[in-house]
C-alpha cells in the first residue's frame, strides 16, 4: 500500500463509520421527522397555529422562561415534591414489607385484603379528604404523592420477598445462617427485581398525581404552569410546561434505571461474599 492509499485509509472504512453512526442515530430519526412535520404544519396552514404553535415558538418561549429563572423554579419545586413523597413511601414500604413477608408472614395473610382494598382506591379521589385534613398547602400534596406511591412499592416488595425460591432459603438455613442473614443475603437480593418494578410504578404514579395536584392547589410547579397557561391562553408556555413534564419523567426513569444497575451490582457482591 502506497502513501496515498494509507492517507485515504481502507476503502470501506468510511462507509462502515457512516453506517455505525446511522445506527446510533436511528432512534432519533423519528423524533426529528416528527419535529420537522410539527414545524411545517402550522406554517403551511395544516393546523391552527393558535393552538398548535411550531416548535420554534415553543423553544423561544422556553428560553424566555429560562432567562427569567421561572422554568427552573417550577421544575425544581415539582421535583422536590415528587422526591420527598416518593422517599417517604419507600422508607415506610420497604421495612413494612420486610416485617410482613420476612418475619411475620401470618401478618401478610391477615392484612393482604386490606392492602388490596387501599391500593385499589384512586388517590385523586381522596384529594378532597387530604385538603380537609391538611389544607391546600404542601402537606396535602405530600400526602397524595405519598399515598399514590406507597401501595405499588409495598405490594411489589411483599410479593418479591414472599416469592423467594424456598430451595434457596433452605440451602442458606442448612449452612447455619441466621434468620436475619438469610433475609438480607437471600430474600432481599431475590426480591430486588420485583422491588424495582414497584419503584418504577410508584414513581410514575406519584409524578402523575403530583402534576394533577399542582393543577388544583398550587401557585408553583410544572402542573401549575400548565394550568395557569391554559387559563390565560398562553399556549406556547403551556407546551413548554408539558415538554418539561415529559423531560422530568424521562429523567426520573433514567435515575431509577441507574439505581437498579447499582443495586444489581450490589446483589452480585452479596452473592460473592
Our measurement of the CA-to-CA distance between the termini, rounded to an integer number of angstroms, reads: 55 Å
Average per-residue pLDDT, rounded, comes to 80
H/E order of the elements?
HHHHHHHHHHHH
CATH architecture call of the largest domain: Orthogonal Bundle
Which regions are unreliable across 5 or more consecutive residues at pLDDT < 50? none
* CATH homologous superfamily identity of the largest domain: MetI-like
Category from helices, strands and their pairing: mainly alpha
Give Rg in angstroms. 25 Å
Give helix % range: over 70%
CATH topology of the largest domain: MetI-like fold
**What characterizes the major β-sheet?**
none
How many domains would you count in the coordinates? 2
Number of helices: 12
In percent, how much strand structure appears in the residues?
under 5%
Q: In the CATH hierarchy, what is the class of the largest domain?
A: Mainly Alpha
Which shape, going by the Cα principal axes? flat
> What is the β-strand count?
0
Give me a quick take on this structure.
The protein is built from twelve helices and no strands. The chain is mainly alpha-helical and 273 residues long. It folds into two domains: 1-48, no CATH class; 55-272, Orthogonal Bundle (MetI-like fold).
Task: Give the key terms.
0% strand; 12 helices; 273 residues; 2 domains; MetI-like fold; mainly alpha; flat
Account of the protein in words:
With 273 residues, this protein is mainly alpha-helical. The termini are far apart. The chain is flat and about 75 Å long. It is built from twelve helices and no strands. The protein folds into two domains: 48 residues, no CATH class; 218 residues, MetI-like (MetI-like fold).
Amino acid at each position: 500500500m502506497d502513501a496515498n492509499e494509507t492517507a485515504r485509509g481502507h476503502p470501506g472504512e468510511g462507509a462502515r463509520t457512516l453506517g455505525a453512526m446511522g445506527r446510533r442515530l436511528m432512534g432519533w430519526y423519528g423524533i426529528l421527522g416528527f419535529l420537522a412535520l410539527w414545524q411545517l404544519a402550522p406554517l403551511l396552514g395544516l393546523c391552527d397555529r393558535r393552538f398548535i404553535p411550531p416548535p420554534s415558538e415553543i423553544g423561544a418561549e422556553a428560553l424566555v422562561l429560562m432567562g427569567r429563572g421561572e422554568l427552573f423554579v417550577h421544575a425544581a419545586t415539582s421535583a422536590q415534591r415528587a422526591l420527598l413523597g416518593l422517599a417517604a413511601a419507600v422508607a415506610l414500604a420497604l421495612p413494612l414489607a420486610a416485617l410482613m413477608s420476612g418475619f411475620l408472614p401470618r401478618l401478610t395473610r391477615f392484612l393482604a385484603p386490606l392492602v388490596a382494598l387501599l391500593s385499589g382506591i384512586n388517590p385523586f379521589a381522596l384529594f378532597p379528604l387530604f385538603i380537609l385534613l391538611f389544607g391546600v398547602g404542601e402537606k396535602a400534596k405530600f400526602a397524595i404523592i405519598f399515598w399514590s406511591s406507597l401501595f405499588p412499592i409495598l405490594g411489589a416488595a411483599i410479593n418479591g420477598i414472599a416469592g423467594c425460591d424456598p430451595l434457596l432459603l433452605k440451602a442458606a438455613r442448612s449452612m447455619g445462617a441466621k434468620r436475619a442473614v438469610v433475609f438480607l443475603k437471600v430474600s432481599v437480593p431475590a426480591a430486588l427485581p420485583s422491588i424495582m418494578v414497584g419503584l418504577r410504578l410508584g414513581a410514575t404514579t406519584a409524578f402523575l398525581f403530583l402534576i394533577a395536584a399542582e393543577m388544583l392547589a398550587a401557585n408553583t410547579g410544572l402542573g401549575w404552569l400548565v394550568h395557569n397557561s391554559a387559563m390565560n391562553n398562553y399556549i406556547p408556555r403551556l407546551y413548554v410546561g408539558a415538554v418539561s413534564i415529559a423531560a422530568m419523567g424521562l429523567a426520573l426513569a433514567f435515575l431509577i434505571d441507574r439505581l437498579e444497575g447499582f443495586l444489581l451490582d450490589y446483589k452480585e457482591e452479596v452473592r460473592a461474599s
